[in-house]
Amino acid sequence: MNGQEEWHNSPIGVFDSGVGGLTVAREIMRQLPNERIVYFGDTARVPYGSKSKETVMKYSRQIVNFLMTQQVKAIVVACNTASAYALDELEHEVDIPIIGVVRPGAKAAMEATKNGKIGVIATEATINSGIYNRYIEKNDRSVKIIGKACPLFVPLVEEGLWEDPVTDEIARRYLTELIDSDIDTLILGCTHYPMIRSTVGRIMGKQVTLVNPAYETARELKDMLLEKGLESEHRPGLGTELYRFFVSDAADKFQRFANSILTYGILSAKVINIDEF
Do 91 and 220 lie in a common domain? Predict the structure, then answer.
């Protein structure tokens, strides 16, 4: 029984190419307050969106190997590019539950659309993978999906330029063709993008529903933990380290960024050599 209880209280592993996955971690903290989290941000090798499938697969595998050393009970791939390129293989390689951010976002978009026209903004890799198209078309062939790669959004977010004229100008250039295509729902298909949600929403207009996969992924994680009997039933006791953060580079910058979006103060982010895994 003790072993089972300890397993219930094991942390959730969350990883991303950099800081974007913190939007997913933030939702898990909010929706599952009893759960502990081990977060890894691959800050040395961000962004993933311009890299090949083989490279993203290699990086994702290394990170999963590291998270397994932290005795996690489930893993959230809090990166659309890694979800698109690596999730299917990772599911067969680990013996704990692992979920990505694509399916929850696609599902929410299908529920939200009224005119059957859904836009997806994401990295080049996610758009080129066609993963949102495949998932949505498999469930509803009548839906039209319009994808748009927005590669500059990730570095703008990483630099903290969320409310900046530069971001505004680039967003207008990227989003013009989506406005013209008459979509009524837009998936923020990269975990960095919720940081500039207000900018995107203002440009797209009130008639377009924005879908935040970070929120939907936390909901799916909650359901999955309940279904598998893995949920932590009690808030960890005083003195327990609820949230631990690891990065592959630039810990100070990561820490400043994390403290600007999380309501929980981050005392430290530890740099590890991810290539060892």
Answer: yes
